[in-house]
Design a protein that fits this description.
Distance between the termini: 12 Å
Low-confidence stretches: 1-8
Structural class: alpha+beta
Oligomer: single chain
Number of strands: 7
Radius of gyration: 13 Å
Strand order of the largest sheet: 4-3-2-1-7
Helix content: 25-40%
Number of domains: 1
Length: 99
């Protein structure tokens, strides 16, 4: 049931994102996890936010072909992707999935 709800929420996203869901489910929090779409440097990117059950969990940022561009937060509190502050330069588009 959980996987099908993830899959339905991602039907408008690149197909490779659907393939990332099982791995994400294996370690994301039971509540508060989400996948959001942003525009960053003129291209769509996707954040895999695991929720807040682990304060040191990073939010991974992937591009449309599902290459990892970097991560936000985590133990070190990273805020930049490819040397550019993400949240000051990214434009939220939509939430693709959340639990």
């Amino acid at each position: 049931m959980f996987f099908s709800s993830c899959q339905n929420g991602l039907k408008e996203a690149p197909p490779c994102l659907q393939q990332k869901i099982p791995g994400f489910q294996a370690w994301c929090c039971a509540q508060g996890a989400r996948i959001d779409e942003y525009q960053f440097q003129g291209k769509p990117v996707y954040t895999f936010d695991p929720g807040n059950c682990g304060g040191d969990f990073p939010t991974y940022v992937l591009d449309a072909p599902c290459d990892t561009l970097g991560f936000l937060g985590g133990f070190a509190g990273f805020t930049d992707i490819q040397g550019i502050p993400f949240y000051g330069n990214a434009s939220f588009q939509r939430t693709l999935w959340k639990n």
